[in-house]
Automatic annotation (TrEMBL):
<comment type="similarity">
    <text>Belongs to the ODR-4 family.</text>
</comment>
<dbReference type="GO" id="GO:0008104">
    <property type="term" value="P:intracellular protein localization"/>
</dbReference>
<dbReference type="InterPro" id="IPR029454">
    <property type="entry name" value="ODR-4-like"/>
</dbReference>
<keyword id="KW-0472">Membrane</keyword>
<dbReference type="Pfam" id="PF14778">
    <property type="entry name" value="ODR4-like"/>
</dbReference>
<keyword id="KW-1133">Transmembrane helix</keyword>
<keyword id="KW-0812">Transmembrane</keyword>
<feature type="transmembrane region" description="Helical">
    <location>
        <begin position="467"/>
        <end position="489"/>
    </location>
</feature>
<dbReference type="GO" id="GO:0012505">
    <property type="term" value="C:endomembrane system"/>
</dbReference>
<dbReference type="GO" id="GO:0016020">
    <property type="term" value="C:membrane"/>
</dbReference>
<protein>
    <submittedName>
        <fullName>Protein odr-4 homolog</fullName>
    </submittedName>
</protein>
């Protein structure tokens, strides 16, 4: 039977939601520790303004009153902020009514329809859901209901298909803090793809989809190195760390010399997380991972190589910063999959955010179009229960000129957490050089025809405000000049 592990802080949060609003609902962000256990990472109450639920203090509200669209929207937004090792695994309901935790009640019967509606909305509204991920689409979810009256918790496993079914699921509140191990990686994008669309106006979004497919194909064929070495997929992360610690201890063990002295190599491993020895030194905060791609010609069969004509080229260049947080019980195969998923999820997210702001998705195929998608920033997930090991981080995406306060607002709305803008890490991905953004892609292009160069149509907040203020100043100047001329000419 599948088991869901929650912390004591989760129980406090469920109680708080029921006390403050009498009826609350939201999403569950979780992590798959192994085949039978899921760890709840975060519970996030839905803060959408829902016309159907204007008065959340009304205890008469039931599961049937929940707007599936509001939950699906939060689900999608939270998925974009999660690292690749976490997913939205279900929904929770917290109420002062005992009916929500009674599976024989009429209220509980509406939960199955709610899940079915949400899943259908996810499939329709997001083309990346279960399509471009490196793993199979998720079909099993968690339904968690909490009743404030009797402090009862009902936990069920929902399986999509054949109208949807509920099955029994065990749940436990754990006193001991969860342990997280952080893995970091940077994925370099530097590739050129052909544009095969022969139409005069090319759809930018379609070309971005081609980028996603190409990166996904490369990631599936890639190899992931941990601390610059290949690690067997079948062992778990805990065994790998133990092996590295043993190796580090051997390096650090004093060796006697003829004169009775001793020589110590490296540093002493200590702390809650073992310090990992590598060829370049000792790393204690995280494990460094590298995603290595094979030679391109090895990805294709000889019969797949063809000579074709194309209308243009699409170049992608940049760095994707990746951070995932794993359980010691995760296998190395899971760890590698999480890293690949995180890179692909980050790429898909920033492309979606960028395309959502386009006023016109089409561009003339004779033009040179330069785009700057948003960069990734990280923030710690606040928690009342301290965890051992690494501090869990989520991410958000900011365009050039946007302040960290944008991420603060998103975290409050989507994850129901309060953040300090000063604590948001914006250094993981640097901004591209201005000269490269405006002129770097013009290499080999006739500079006498500037009309062929089109910059991204995404709004630049700082520039827009400056032009707005300049326009007001010019208008005031014209108005004052008109008044002066009126009085001067009137006197004559």
């Amino acid at each position: 039977m599948r088991t869901v592990l929650l912390s004591k802080a989760d129980e406090v949060y469920l109680e708080k939601c029921a006390q403050e609003n009498q009826f609350s609902y939201g999403i569950i962000v979780g992590h798959q520790a192994d085949l039978s256990k899921s760890v709840v990472v975060h519970l996030a109450r839905n803060n959408e303004e829902d016309a159907d639920l204007e008065d959340l203090t009304d205890v008469r509200l039931t599961i049937g009153d929940i707007n599936a669209q509001a939950l699906a929207s939060q689900w999608l937004s939270a998925s974009k902020m999660c690292p690749g090792s976490f997913d939205v695994i279900g929904i929770f309901v917290s109420s002062s009514s005992p009916d929500v935790s009674n599976e024989k009640s009429d209220d509980f019967k509406n939960a199955k329809k709610l899940f079915s509606d949400i899943y259908d909305l996810l499939l329709k509204s997001n083309s990346s859901f279960g399509v471009y991920t490196t793993d199979i689409a998720q079909t099993d979810f968690v339904f968690l209901a909490y009743s404030l009256v009797d402090k009862k918790v009902l936990c069920k496993n929902y399986s999509y298909g054949n109208g949807g079914t509920f099955s029994n699921m065990d749940h436990r509140f754990v006193d001991k803090p969860f342990e997280w191990i952080q893995l970091e990686s940077t994925y370099d994008l530097d590739d050129v793809l052909p544009i095969l669309d022969a139409s005069r106006r090319v759809n930018i979004e379609d070309q971005f989809q081609n980028i996603i497919k190409a990166v996904r194909r490369n990631l599936l064929a890639s190899e992931v190195f941990l601390q610059n070495e290949i690690v067997e997929d079948t062992i778990d992360l805990q065994a790998y760390i133990k092996k590295k610690r043993t190796k580090a201890d051997k390096l650090n063990k004093p060796s006697s010399t003829g004169g009775g002295g001793s020589v110590s190599a490296g540093s002493t491993a200590s702390g809650s997380l073992p310090e990992l020895a590598s060829d370049t030194g000792i790393i204690s905060d995280s494990i460094r991972a590298s995603i290595v791609l094979p030679v391109k010609c090895q990805l294709s069969k000889p019969s797949d190589i063809k000579v074709r004509e194309f209308q243009g080229t699409l170049r992608m260049s940049g760095i994707i910063a990746s951070k995932v947080f794993c359980s010691p019980r995760n296998s190395i195969a899971d760890v590698k999959r999480f890293l690949r998923d995180d890179v692909l999820r980050s790429l898909i997210t920033r492309i979606q955010v960028y395309c959502d702001g386009l006023t016109d998705p089409y561009v003339n195929n004779e033009a040179l179009y330069v785009s700057e998608p948003p960069r990734r920033v990280f923030f710690n997930l606040p928690t009342e229960t301290p965890s051992t090991g690494a501090t869990v981080q989520f991410s958000e995406y900011l365009f050039r000129g946007e302040a960290p306060t944008v991420a603060v607002a998103q975290a409050k709305q989507i994850l129901d957490v309060e953040l300090d803008p000063e604590t948001i890490s914006v250094e993981a991905e640097g901004l591209p050089d201005d000269s490269n953004f405006t002129n770097g892609a013009n290499a080999g292009v006739d500079r006498t025809d500037d009309s062929r160069t089109l910059l991204s149509s995404m709004p630049k907040p700082e520039l827009s405000r400056s032009l707005y203020m300049l326009g007001i100043a010019v208008a005031l100047l014209i108005l004052l000049s008109s008044v002066v001329l009126h009085y001067v000419l009137g006197d004559r």
